[in-house]
Amino acid sequence: MTQENAGADAVLGAAAGLAGGAVAGAVATFKAASSFMDRLTSAPSTQKFEVNKDNILKAGKIIQDQASVLSRALEHATEDLKIKADARAEGKVGADIAAAWNSRLVGGKDTYAGRVDSYVASLDALATQLREAAKQYGFTEEEITTTFGKQK
């Protein structure tokens, strides 16, 4: 956990203690989900797959398509992920709470959106490696471009 996220957790904890009711429940639920996501996204991956001449183009297409889908989804969802503050009504989400939530959700490398963005970058890097391997296997530039699209 970064120092920024620790500060956000402190604000969220203070808000839970002061606000009571629905906001406190939401803060507690968010903190539990946040903790779960931290454990989930920091665990080492044990999945393996073998790429060879027979499946490299298919594997590359799957990886490239998934990177594109996730990138577009993140781009469209980022604004919707942000919590909006409502300073007009007591008991609603205030500016400090919204800022704390947003510091965990979007806007930086160590946020949930940042983690998805890093994952997309790793998929793009893997697709680039598979593109190069396909060349070494002797696939034509046309076959590679048909599978992976034009090189970025």
Structural commentary:
The protein has 152 residues and is an all-alpha fold. The chain has one domain (3-148). Helices cover 72% and strands 0% of the residues. It contains 6 helices and no strands. The chain has helices spanning 3-19, 21-42, 56-81, 95-105, 112-136, 141-148. The longest helix is centred in the middle third of the chain and has 26 residues, at 56-81.
Tally the helices: what do you get?
A: 6
Query: In total, how many domains does the architecture comprise?
Result: 1
Cα shape: elongated
Strand proportion, as a percent range, falls in under 5%
Attribute tags:
elongated; 152 residues; mainly alpha; 0% strand
